[in-house]
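Honest question from a wet-lab person: if I give you the sequences of every part of a complex, can you actually get the arrangement of the whole thing, not just the pieces? Trying it with mine:
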Amino acid sequence: MSFPVIKGASYSLFHTPEMTVHQGSNQTTERYMNPNSEHFKNLQKSLRSFDDFVKYPPNQVYIGNIKPDMLKCHKRPWYEHPMEVASTDGNFGAIYTEEELIALVKIVDVFDLVVLEESFQAATKVKLEKRQELQIIDKYLSKLDNKGVDFAELESMVNEQGAEGMYYSGRLVGCVKKAHAFDAVLTAHVMFENLVSKATAVVNLLQMFTKTKLRPRDIDYIIETSEEACGDMNQRGGGNMAKAIGEICGCVNATGSDTRSFCAGPVHGLVQAAALVQSGIYKNVVVVAGGSTAKLGMNSKSHIEKNMPALEDCLGTFAIHVSENDGISPIIRTDVVGRHTIGAGSAPQAVITAIVTDPLDKANIKLDDIDKFSPELQNPEITVPSGAGDVTLSNLKMIAALGVKRGDFLKEDMERIVNEKGMTGYAPTQGHIPSGVPYIGFAIQEIMNKKLKKVMIIGKGSLFLGRLTNLFDGVSFVMEENTVSEEETTTVSKDEVRSIVAEALKNLAKSL
Amino acid sequence: MDLENQARIKGFADKYGKDLVIVLGAGEAQAAELAAETVTKGDPTYAGPLAGVQLELPVYHAFELKESVEPGVYEDQAGMMEMVLDVDALNEAVKKFRA
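Yes, you can. This is the full assembly:
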């Protein structure tokens, strides 16, 4: 059996302090309940500069400039110990300013809903023109050639016509207009969220084209796995974010669809991508997701209380390329896929059994054979102060504890197992973003450099948030060193020859 | 504590009064303490329906009920998490809110 491979991954971050203040759901709720809340003044004071954001160690890990293991020895708190050497350009992607993002939201808007103030638009256009990855979509860049609006007009759109304001460095520089007079899912706020998600996913997919050999025309299928929903009042989650992203990126030979399962969505998307490739339906599938503005500053009150910077000030994105077996890239073991079934139960032990040990047992792989587990990778510096604990560490401890209960590990080895087979979380708390997938870029490198053999990617999702079921969700798969030679991937394998000969003999026997 | 959960607990308290027992499954002592405080002294964040409402309900962490649960069920549901979480800290965080 020739397994599909993961050929490449890209990861980018967008620094969004103003969106944190204006569009994070924690802040929009506070504004609704208590418009004069002290929280807004405190939050403003707790926002980080772009420079601090770039030098923040977990952000340098996310874009691929340092390995997650290096965070273990980096002095904490990380926000007080910036990287001495840091870059906005990463091995896997890049870090963008809020100024760039606002202009990108206009670039990806095909319904003329986005309006920018003229001087802001002109100045930002000059900056974006220098970005190599955006040359791929130069025809869309020309949208910034049209004249912007003056400030008074912009102010009137936001204050009198219900447009969603976009701010940069404390001033109103643009807005997203509502897309319908009274449709609740085409409001300015919803359109803003969807356009930002689209823009961030687009730019990160362009990063993949500049950092890997994949070209827009090569892609056959796109699976979008964010947590947004686009549609109208008659089909609230109608979709299709995937094709909207692919259209801007020039993926003219691709189609696509959206996959949802809260934070577990990306891993579901990757399992589907693997199946589509292995079945031969498509050769090249990308799984993508943009960022979520609603989650900005979710725990900012806790951070402010503890005199910390408001660390949830960015949007995260990823793109993963799944392709036919090339004999080189790490394979996806489609025979080792974990799934939390409807009947599995929601106790942590039941969940970990279903998504970690059941698939391994089925394939006769020992728990100890997995070199790295990549569960939810939330940055603990964000979650611990808010009382949510170190999510990554808890997940790793659960895997080790289950191993102890089953007799795979000794109890006294738990800490060592967690250290050796785990990592420190480093991803922004963007729901679908931290759920297992951020490590795939490093896993490709480590497996190809023979440092690791097997890596398990685990996604988990809290379905009860949608108030339709109390069920939990989880899905996993194993990435493994590719031991299939290139010749075998392009010619008929021995098994296939045996099967052809057997078939011929059967037919011969019948005719006799 | 989640505002929706606060509303549900308030609704149950109105219906069942002091017969209602709250069992928490929080994984962090800080979160357990906040939840226990919310169902006894009222929502300390003054954001939800239990703000200023002193229900004084009996509250326990699930780990405290080990002896009251059939051993096999406890082992299946909470055995693994006993090895993962700080059981003593969680129990202490909740215990102090019981009269």
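Two things worth pointing out. Chain A has one domain: 1-481. Residues 1-481 of chain A form a domain with the Peroxisomal Thiolase; Chain A, domain 1 fold (CATH 3.40.47).
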